[in-house]
Amino acid sequence: MYRTKMTAKGQVTLPKDLRTKLGLKTGDYLQVKETKEGYIIKKELDKQRFQKYTGLLSREGESNEIIKELRGE
Fold first, then answer.
1. pLDDT digits (tens, 9 = 90+) for 43-66
2. Which terminus of the chain, N or C, has fewer Cβ atoms within 10 Å?
3. Cα separation, 48 vs 25, whole angstroms
4. 52: helix, strand or coil
5. Minimal CA–CA distance to 1: which of 30, 43, 45, 41?
6. What is the DSSP letter of 44?
């Protein structure tokens, strides 16, 4: 369990080890979901996280062949 205090501006600081476990860095967004048991806080995934892979495969072919090529086999 972690304990934190809210500032007058409504800000809270998450302990460093929790930020590390969640993989949080400056500018990341968190989602807060209400449940019957309480609240769930999780890191919001970047919707564009796969964009850097767009166009990586420049040719068509069997998926097994492409995977072997990517692995350098």
1. 888 776 667 677 766 667 777 887
2. N
3. 17
4. helix
5. 41
6. P
In this prediction the pTM is 0.54
In which element (H, E) is residue 39 found? Answer: strand 39-43
User: What are the extents of the domains in the chain?
Assistant: 16-71
Would you state the structure tokens that stand for residue 46, as one six-digit string?
A: 């970047």
Scanning the structure block, which residue is given the tokens 């069997």?
Answer: 62
* Alpha-carbon span 30 to 33, nearest angstrom: 10
The encoded tokens of residue 72 equal 């350098």
> How many CA atoms lie less than 13 Å away from 64 in the CB half-sphere?
0
pLDDT tens for residues 26-36? 988 899 999 99
